[in-house]
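quick q for whoever's on today - can somebody do inverse folding on this one?? i tried earlier but teh output was garbage lol. tokens:
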């Protein structure tokens, strides 16, 4: 698949490179695994050679040998002697950058935890010593999000706040997914677009796997995902087990419950069979995999809470792949596909709400976007978009089929919202429906 989007990110990276010629720059590139962090950096800097250090899981001396060869190849400068410690190489490069600007990109940076934890304190000392006069453009990124966040945002860590920029790479937006699908399947349908969004969530590598395989329709995507030796089947574990460590079983049970529609803490605990407060906090704050949602204008911070998995792929994976793994163990792929087809309308209905929320966000027209539901569960509004600058609000009902939209009922729910919250007084308020026809 050819490279799509990332225009703003590439512009930022090139701007940072320009700044490094005057002052040393230290950029941390973060984002979930498979999001395309490494590809982004390579694309942004394709116009000139960069030093690329990959932190593999091997002895520090072996890594240093690889890095010395990279320095000689890219900069044309052989290092004197054989370095056994990364600190020696890093100090050499920091000194060199005083006279010669260049870019150093360290990939899988969190793996230094396994190689030699002292690397981080050594880098802090060397950076603080040489960065005032250096002209290095230093970038680090890693695939384990929680560890990368800990390295740079935990006050106890040596490199806390040493970065000059913290760049987060996000999934492709709906507009970009439409561009990609139109490129590979000009005759795509709304169902195909919704499937691509629902199955991949806009994660670059998942989109690439499907497009490269010619899976550009809903049916072909599902066939590609659920088949023997499919990369997608083991992907949830591949991405998350390293994040969660030895407690991954509890986290997986929680995420599986949420994916199946158990969104309150009480409902989740009834499935998991234990108290999960601490786990939910980590999933939200540390791993950033779930989000705690409340109705718009809810005054209590702890009442009427729903938990959701924000990542579409993880929602799909836990809802179907993880739940029905016993079918995969006996290679009954057709039965799993039949279950996905059976439940797809309900699953994709939830994804359609997310899709339109992202579309509304992309417009930059609204100052607040969310949903609303009362505590009794009698009234629920899919989306409310407020423009407080212009005193406007739009209430949306989202359905797969336009014929199922009931605007009269939405007006009743709007009235219940206004009575319960007292908000939007003096606003111009509209009620609208959104369906797959509007994608």
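ok took a stab at it. sequence:
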């Amino acid at each position: 698949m050819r490279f799509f989007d990332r225009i703003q990110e590439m512009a930022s990276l090139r701007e940072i490179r320009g700044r490094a010629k005057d002052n040393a720059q230290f950029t941390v590139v973060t984002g979930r695994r498979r999001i395309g962090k490494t590809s982004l950096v390579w694309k942004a800097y394709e116009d000139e050679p960069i030093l690329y250090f990959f932190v593999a899981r091997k002895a520090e001396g072996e890594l240093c040998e690889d890095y010395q060869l990279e320095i000689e190849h890219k900069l044309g400068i052989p290092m004197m002697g054989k370095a056994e410690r990364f600190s020696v190489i890093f100090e050499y490069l920091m000194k060199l950058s005083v006279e010669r600007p260049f870019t150093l990109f360290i990939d899988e940076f969190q793996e230094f935890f396994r190689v030699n934890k002292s690397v981080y304190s050594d880098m802090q000392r060397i950076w603080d010593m040489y960065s005032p006069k250096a002209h290095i453009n230093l970038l680090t990124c890693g695939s384990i999000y929680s560890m990368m966040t800990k390295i740079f945002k935990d006050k106890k860590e040596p490199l806390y706040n040493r970065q000059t920029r913290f760049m987060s790479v996000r999934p492709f937006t709906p507009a970009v997914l439409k561009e990609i699908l139109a490129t590979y399947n000009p005759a795509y349908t709304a169902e195909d677009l919704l499937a691509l969004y629902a199955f991949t969530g806009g994660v670059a590598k998942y989109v690439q796997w499907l497009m490269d395989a010619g899976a550009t329709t809903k049916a072909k995507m599902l066939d590609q995902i659920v088949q023997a030796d499919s990369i997608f089947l083991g992907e949830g574990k591949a991405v998350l087990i390293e994040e969660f460590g030895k407690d991954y079983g509890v986290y997986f049970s929680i995420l599986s419950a949420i994916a199946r529609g158990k969104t309150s803490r009480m409902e989740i605990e009834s499935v998991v069979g234990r108290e999960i407060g601490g786990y939910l906090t980590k999933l939200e704050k540390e791993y950033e995999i779930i989000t705690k949602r409340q109705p718009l204008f809810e005054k209590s911070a702890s009442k009427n809470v729903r938990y959701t998995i924000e990542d579409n792929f993880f929602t799909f994976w836990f809802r179907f792949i993880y739940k029905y793994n016993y079918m995969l163990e006996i290679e009954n792929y057709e039965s799993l596909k039949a279950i996905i087809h059976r439940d797809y309308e309900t699953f994709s209905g939830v994804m359609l709400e997310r899709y339109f929320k992202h579309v509304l966000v992309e417009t930059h027209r609204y100052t607040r976007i969310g949903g609303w539901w009362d505590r009794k569960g009698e009234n629920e509004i899919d989306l409310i978009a407020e423009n407080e600058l212009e005193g406007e609000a739009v209430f949306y009902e989202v359905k797969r089929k336009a014929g199922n939209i009931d605007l009269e009922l939405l007006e009743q729910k709007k009235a219940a919202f206004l009575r319960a919250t007292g908000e939007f007084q003096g606003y111009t308020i509209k009620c609208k429906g959104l369906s797959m026809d509007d994608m």
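fwiw The two ends are 23 Å apart (CA to CA). also Residues 333-363 form the longest helix (31 residues). so keep that in mind when u check it
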